[in-house]
Amino acid sequence: MKRPVLAANWKMNNGPTAAKAFMDAFVSSYPARDDRTIIIFPSALSLSVVAAAIKNRPGLLAGVQNIHWAEKGAFTGEISAPMARDAGASVVLVGHSERRHVFGETDAQCAKKCAAAAKAQLAFMLCVGETIQQREAGETESLVIRQLREGLSQTPNLISTEFLLAYEPVWAIGTGLTASAADASAIHTVLRAELRDMIGTRADAIPILYGGSVNAGNAADLLAADEIDGLLVGGASVEASSWLTIAQAG
Ligand code: PGA
User: Fold this and answer.
1) Which end of the chain is more exposed for a tag (fewer CB within 10 A), N or C?
2) 104-144, pLDDT tens digit by residue?
3) Domain 5-247 carries which CATH code?
4) Can you tell me the mean pLDDT for 178-189?
C-alpha cells in the first residue's frame, strides 16, 4: 500500500493574511487521516502562519520553496536551511523548474542546496524535468538522470537522508497540459531504477511525485498509477476548496 504525498506549491501567492484564511478553511475541513502526507510550501513570509495551523496535526507538514546553501551570512534576500527549520519547515523544494529556468539555478547549486538541507535535517524534494525542446529531441531520460545524479552528488550518507523526488515536465507546468499517467510513470520508472543503482533498496522508500497542471479533476487518475507516489500541485493548490479535493484524492 503506498502512502501518497500531496504537496501544495503556492509559489508567489498567499501572503500571511490569505495563508491564514486558507489554513483555517483547510484544517477545519480536512479530516484527520493517516494514509497520506500533506505538505504545504508557502512563501517564506507565510511559513509561520502555516506552521502554526498544522501544529498537532500529524500528517500535515510545512515546507519552504527555496533555500540558500550557506548556513548564514551576507546573502541579502536569502534564507538558510537552519532558519527554515527554526521557523517550522520540515521540507524544502530544490531545483523547481522556475528556480532553474527563471532564476538560472544550476545542477551544481541544487547539489549544494540538497547537501545544506540534509545537514540541517531538513528533508528536501529535488525536482527534475525536461523542456518541450528537450522532450522533442528525445533527451528526457538522459536529462532527468543527469539532474538526479548531479543534484544528489554532494549529499553524503544519502541512504540515511530523508528526501523525495518530483518529476515535473517543464512543458506541463502552469500550461494546462498534463503528462499522461503512462508518460509520467515511464519517467518515474527511469528515476527509480537510477536511484536503485545509487542507493539500493532504500530507493524503494523514496516517494516520486508528479507535478504539472495537476487539478481537482485529474489528481485521482494520476495518483492511481503504481509508479506515481504523490502529486506536486501549483496553481490548483492556491485556493483551499480545490486543494481540499486534491488532498483527499484517490
Ligand atoms: P502547476 O505547477 O500545478 O501550476 O502546473 C506545478 C509546480 O510548478 O509545482
Assistant:
1) N
2) 999 999 999 999 999 999 999 999 999 999 999 999 999 99
3) 3.20.20.70
4) 95
Domain spans of the chain? 5-247
Distance in Å, CA 200 to ligand 1 centroid? 30
Residue 97 CA: which ligand 1 atom is closest? 8
Q: What is the pTM of this model?
A: 0.97
pLDDT of residue 250: 87
Distances (CA, A) of 70 to 81, 117, 157, 225: 8, 10, 19, 38
Residue 176 confidence (pLDDT): 87
Closest C-alpha among 67, 62, 57 to residue 32: 57
Which residue has the CA at smallest separation from atom 3 of ligand 1? 234
Give the distance (Å) from ligand 1 centre to CA of residue 135: 18
Any catalytic annotation for residue 101? Answer: no
Catalytic residue among 105, 130, 150, 168: 168
Check whether 1 has a pLDDT greater than 70.
Answer: no
Measure the CA–CA gap between 162 and 123, rounded to whole angstroms. 5
